[in-house]
Write a structure and sequence with these properties.
The chain is of the alpha+beta class. It is about 20% helix and about 45% strand. It has 1 helix and 10 strands; from the N terminus they run αββββββββββ.
């Protein structure tokens, strides 16, 4: 039995091929746009401060506004961090300061100063692994909390086997 050729099938196949090719081109273009939009998120990685201040509100924890963060590193692994946070709310709030220390770091000093007051040493109460978690005194509306932190990074000790 002889089959008849359908002349309408050829344009339909060409249209399907064109639609498939256009779909691939659009997918590649969208992937490129997504990568370009994600690039700024990774550009500042490692440059953001490792500390943050959360303020205890009735509705939950809210971030305080970071005014500045300065770090000073010395050759011997000693690092000094100074940060200032602002209470932007209309009520006095207690803060929870968080700082991610490097592995094997030894905390040497942590102090908080509200406004122009003399820095007061913090009473270290909690440390979860490499994360330091400390409560601060009440910060009045519009007031600034200055945090000074010093630590020393140690390299892990190596034990040499005796023969």
């Amino acid at each position: 039995m002889e089959t008849e050729k359908h002349p309408a099938a050829l344009p339909l196949l060409a249209l399907l091929a064109l639609a498939s090719a256009l779909g691939v081109v659009v997918a590649i273009a969208l992937a490129g746009v997504a990568m370009l939009l994600a690039a700024p998120a990774y550009a500042g990685e490692g440059k953001m401060p490792d500390g943050s201040l959360l303020l205890e509100r009735r509705s939950g924890l809210a971030p305080a506004k970071l005014l500045f963060a300065e770090t000073e590193s010395l050759d011997d692994g000693h690092k000094r961090v100074v940060e200032a946070y602002h209470n932007p709310f209309d009520e006095p709030l207690v803060g929870v300061y968080l700082y991610r220390l490097p592995q094997n770091a030894v905390l040497e000093r942590l102090s908080f100063a509200i406004g122009a007051a003399v820095p007061q040493p913090a009473l270290l109460t909690r440390r979860h692994g490499a994360t330091l978690v400390e409560r601060t005194a009440e910060i009045a509306p519009g007031e600034t909390l200055r945090v000074e932190l010093e630590y020393r990074s140690r390299s892990p000790r190596r034990v040499l086997a005796l023969r």
